[in-house]
């Protein structure tokens, strides 16, 4: 990600522009002059951005956060598809289209990313960034045809690069493409996590432990069952996200400013989506209603909500793991999380569950990001929602954070979890809830008395039942079988 004004050339040029008192004929050797509807300004001669980008940088020195590389690449794909469609229609001369396409290919390959200098928090539905893209592509295309930067009579940012387009359809298209592309890795990483939980579930399927409800002792489960449940939760969250992503496959391209397709050829929408499919290899379709595609951001809120729901599950699971790992002497200590780094600057030997703590923090951020997205989604009026930049900023941050961390989380945390079988057994033997399994044989009231006496005498239910001769050893062994206690064996063990 490009840091704001981190590039020395950009920083120096900003200072020069603010302090400039030169006459038109005093233009320095390292600057060029460009004009827009508001007048003339000096732009660094070597910069690929132009005057409109310059104004945006000055207007929005907000966060210091620039567009993510993935979003820049997606926008370049959009501009490439538009150029190919306009050339196919016959509106764009082949040599101009080919130069634009080449420039887009370079950007999508990671070049010139330092030229995208507009802050993520910008007004105007993303127009500032769209113009940043148009200017960089135009100036690189000019170089490719042997012209100097700023010679827009040959290739113009608006007339050629932005032909048949508006910010209002290109920006949400790039948003959708970017999310769909990043999501492919995210879905893979979630499957990686699901499988890791499944492996632990199979590994510990016979380790009985106390279940807990209200954080109080409850009926037995196996450690494997708990991990299998985590696996299913991740699968369901992944499936929900995958379903929400389908809504993003409708492309707003061709809608232009208000959804009417102004200044486009009748075949343009079909052709530009066709080229986008070929460029991205994604299952993209034309929007059912171009006006709805500009007005509504239901598709974005659906994906963000799915991300929030996933985050809530990750928080829940991470907190379970923290509790089961707590100790080592005064906590539950039913499992041991891998030790990845020393945990205290003052307490020697202390090791903290840092990997699950990090997952919690990431998940909290995702929940917060969803709130921002939700507020932005509801803020549309009439033919446009102008809050696109804050939507894509937050949604992409959520997805990138998880994409970066999930493989590490699986490798350094989940895959290395160890079970403390002795501790699990010890807790279970003292669990008064085991008296529940006596109820079909001796009734609720008697079973309750057994539970209370066992707690008072610090005895196991099993030992107390044998001591009092309530049941035979064979009967007790049958009832307290791990498959029966865990529900893995559905057998009616009531007295006939």
Strand coverage percent: 5-15%
The CATH topology of the largest domain is Fumarase C, Chain A, domain 2
Q: C-alpha Rg, in Å?
A: 31 Å
The assigned structural class equals mainly alpha
CATH architectural group of the largest domain:
Up-down Bundle
Oligomerization status of the protein chains: single chain
**Principal-axes shape call:** elongated
Helix count equals 19
Biggest sheet details: 2 strands, antiparallel
Mean pLDDT: 92
Per CATH, the class of the largest domain reads Mainly Alpha
List the strand order in the largest sheet: 1-2
The low-confidence runs, each spanning 5 or more residues with pLDDT under 50, are 1-8, 14-25
Order of helices and strands, N to C? HEEHHHHHHEEHEHEHHEHHEHHHHHH
* N-to-C CA distance: 71 Å
**CATH-wise, what's the superfamily of the largest domain?**
Fumarase/aspartase (Central domain)
Count of the domains: 3
Question: Care to count the β-strands?
Answer: 8
Query: What's the helical proportion of residues?
Result: 55-70%
What can you tell me about this protein's structure?
With 496 residues, this protein is mainly α. The protein folds into 3 domains: 8-163, Fumarase C, Chain B, domain 1 (Orthogonal Bundle); 175-250 and 290-419, Fumarase/aspartase (Central domain) (Fumarase C, Chain A, domain 2, Up-down Bundle); 430-485, Ribonucleotide Reductase Protein R1, domain 1 (Orthogonal Bundle), CATH 1.10.40.30. Helix content is 57%, strand content 7%. It has 19 helices and 8 strands. The strands form 4 sheets. Strands 1-2 form a two-stranded antiparallel ribbon. It has a two-stranded antiparallel sheet with strand order 3-4. It is elongated, with a radius of gyration of 31 Å.
């Amino acid at each position: 990600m490009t840091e704001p004004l981190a590039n020395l050339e950009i920083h120096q040029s900003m200072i020069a522009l603010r302090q400039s008192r030169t006459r038109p004929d005093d233009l320095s050797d390292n600057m060029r002059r460009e004009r827009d509807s508001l007048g003339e300004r000096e732009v660094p001669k070597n910069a690929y951005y132009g005057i409109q980008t310059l104004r945006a940088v000055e207007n929005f020195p907000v966060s210091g956060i620039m567009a993510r590389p993935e979003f820049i690449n997606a926008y370049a794909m959009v501009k490439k598809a538009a150029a190919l469609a306009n050339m196919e229609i016959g509106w764009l001369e082949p040599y101009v289209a080919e130069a634009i396409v080449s420039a887009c290919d370079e950007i999508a390959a990671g070049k010139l990313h330092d030229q995208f200098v507009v802050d993520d928090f910008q007004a105007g539905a993303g127009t500032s960034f769209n113009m940043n893209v148009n200017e960089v592509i135009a100036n690189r295309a000019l170089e490719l045809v042997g012209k100097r930067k700023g010679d827009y009579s040959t290739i113009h940012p608006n007339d050629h690069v932005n032909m048949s387009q508006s910010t209002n359809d290109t920006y949400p298209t790039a948003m959708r493409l970017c999310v769909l592309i990043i999501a492919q890795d995210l879905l893979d990483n979630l499957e990686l996590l699901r499988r890791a939980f499944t492996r632990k579930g199979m590994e510990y399927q016979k380790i009985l432990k106390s279940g807990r409800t209200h954080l109080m002792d409850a009926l037995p489960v196996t450690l494997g069952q708990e991990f299998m449940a985590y696996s299913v939760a991740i699968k369901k969250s992944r499936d929900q996200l995958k379903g929400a992503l389908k809504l993003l496959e409708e492309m707003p391209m061709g809608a232009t400013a208000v959804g009417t397709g102004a200044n486009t050829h009748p075949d343009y929408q079909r052709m530009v989506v066709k080229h986008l499919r070929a460029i991205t290899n994604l299952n993209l379709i034309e929007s059912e209603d171009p006006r709805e595609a500009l007005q509504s951001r239901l598709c974005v809120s659906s994906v963000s909500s799915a991300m929030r729901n996933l985050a809530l599950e990750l928080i829940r699971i991470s907190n379970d793991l923290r509790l089961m790992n707590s100790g080592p002497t005064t906590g539950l200590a039913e499992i041991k999380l891998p030790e990845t780094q020393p945990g205290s600057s003052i307490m020697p030997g202390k090791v903290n569950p840092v990997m699950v703590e990090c997952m919690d923090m990431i998940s909290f951020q995702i929940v917060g990001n969803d709130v921002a997205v939700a507020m932005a989604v509801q803020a549309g009026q009439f033919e446009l929602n102008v809050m696109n930049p804050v939507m894509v900023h937050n949604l992409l941050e959520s997805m990138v954070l998880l994409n970066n961390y999930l493989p590490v989380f699986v490798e350094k945390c989940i895959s290395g979890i160890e079970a403390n079988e002795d501790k699990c057994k010890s807790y279970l033997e003292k669990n008064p809830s085991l008296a529940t399994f006596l109820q079909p044989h001796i009734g609720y009231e008697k079973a309750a008395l057994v539970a209370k006496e066992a707690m008072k005498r610090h005895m196991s239910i099993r030992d107390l039942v044998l001591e009092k001769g309530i049941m035979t050893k064979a009967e007790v062994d049958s009832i307290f079988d791990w498959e029966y206690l865990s529900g893995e064996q559905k057998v009616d063990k009531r007295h006939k």
